[in-house]
Amino acid sequence: MANESRPCPCDIGDRFDYGGRGQEVRVEHIKAYVCEPPASTDKAVIVIHDIFGWQLPNTRYMADMLTTNGYIAICPDFFVGQEAWKPTNDWASFDNWLKTRDAGKIDKEVDVVLKYLREQCGAKKIGVIGFCWGGAAVQHLMLKNPHLETGVSLYGVIRFFEDRSSLLHPTFFIFAEKDEHIPLEQVTLLEQKLKQNCKVDYEVKIYPGQTHGFVHRKREDINPQDKAYIDEGRKDMIHWLNKYL
């Protein structure tokens, strides 16, 4: 996001040809993708999409991965009916597009989703993960929402909340070494602020040689040079959730 002419030149990456194992539901005013594991559980994870929206097959693939690891997973439309960003859009219009899609203004939707998970799915322990825009939203929730247990922010845009680091819940930050949009200086500064201000468990991990979106926007089978790090990032995410949920 350092490039001023293209403030978030996110490459959609490998668009997965993936239909999903879950179903689309309506939760009050929000559409959502929900997938539940075969065995009953009281653990759930909210999945917050990136700028490409809740219907991106890659994000549903990640939600289903959570389900195969025993979690109820829900990926709501946090743009609430507004159009997701399209790779064909003009990047010059991105800042205007973003003004009506603030990663720090999703509290109403999160409350609705939490109520649904508790009352309709029997969830008692609830965590959250998010990618890019959604990763920034995770940081916001970890700073503010008392009803979540833990969070994993995957290449969350630091500049959205860079002045705040007093986390309420254990949080895992995944970053890519060669992320054009999140310079390593920002990651270092985040680590310093967390060290000074954070009273809960946290971890910041940088994955060598990786680029923005590597955990969910790259396929292992067509990115063999990145496969080890894609796998590692996904395993680390699951391990963190298992530890705190």
Description:
This protein is α/β, with parallel strands linked by helices. Helices cover 33% and strands 19% of the residues. It contains seven helices and eight strands, in the order βββαβααβαββαβαα. It has an eight-stranded mixed beta sheet, sandwiched between helices. The N terminus is likely disordered.
Attribute tags:
19% strand, disordered N terminus, alpha/beta, Rossmann fold
Strand content: 15-25%
CATH H-level superfamily title: Alpha/Beta hydrolase fold, catalytic domain
Order of helices and strands: EEEHEHHEHEEHEHH
The tally of beta strands, per DSSP, is 8
CATH architecture: 3-Layer(aba) Sandwich
- Contiguous helical run count: 7
- Biggest pleated sheet: 8 strands, mixed
Distance between the termini: 32 Å
In percent, how helical is the residue content? 25-40%
Indicate how many domains the architecture comprises: 1
Oligomer status: single chain
| Strand order across the largest sheet | 1-2-4-3-5-6-7-8
Shape: globular
Based on helices, strands and strand pairing, what is the structural class?
alpha/beta
CATH class: Alpha Beta
Estimated radius of gyration: 17 Å
Query: What value does the average pLDDT take?
Result: 92
Low-confidence stretches: 1-7
CATH fold-level assignment: Rossmann fold
